[in-house]
Write a structure and sequence with these properties.
CATH topology: Deoxyuridine 5'-Triphosphate Nucleotidohydrolase, Chain A
Shape: globular
Number of domains: 1
CATH class: Mainly Beta
CATH superfamily: Deoxyuridine triphosphatase (dUTPase)
Helix content: under 10%
Distance between the termini: 44 Å
Strand content: 35-45%
């Protein structure tokens, strides 16, 4: 799959850290401070053209989550194939200290996935399953529940 990328300025970075990695690192295009409990949109300085039948998923960086309490708020954030605007990452600081994302700092990763396009059919009744309408913990929380 080929994805076209437009840089909004020549300093912008986008790279695969290691051959075989699922996620492409996204970098902050600006320096931004995020206080504990605060939510900010961090611009990446790139636009992408994702082929139809695919999506881009914006996901957190595990190192930022573990070491700083920084994560992507709507993870995974979906980038639809028809979107051509700048990619922004919605970051929340769950940590106890101010986090500064310096320009060119890794802030998230972008993973591409093939998707099935749904054909919606309205019906009067749905088929029954062993689970039925059970949800929100109905299967228990412990191994022997």
């Amino acid at each position: 799959m080929k994805v076209q990328v437009k840089k909004l300025n020549p300093e912008v970075k986008l790279e695969l850290a290691h051959k075989g990695d699922a996620g492409i690192d996204l970098y902050a295009a600006e320096t931004i401070e995020i206080l504990p409990g605060e939510i900010k949109l961090v611009k990446t300085g790139i636009k992408v053209a994702i082929p139809e039948g695919f999506e881009g998923q914006v996901r957190p960086k595990s190192g930022l989550a573990l070491n700083k309490g920084i994560t992507v708020l709507n993870t995974p954030g979906t980038i639809d194939s028809g979107y051509r605007g700048e990619i922004g990452v919605i970051i929340i600081n769950h940590g106890k200290k101010k986090f500064t994302a310096e320009k060119k700092t890794k802030i998230a990763q972008l993973v591409f996935n093939k998707i099935e396009l749904a054909e919606i059919e309205f019906v009067e009744e749905l088929d029954d399953t062993s689970r039925g309408e059970g949800g929100f913990g109905s299967t228990g929380l412990k191994l022997n529940d």
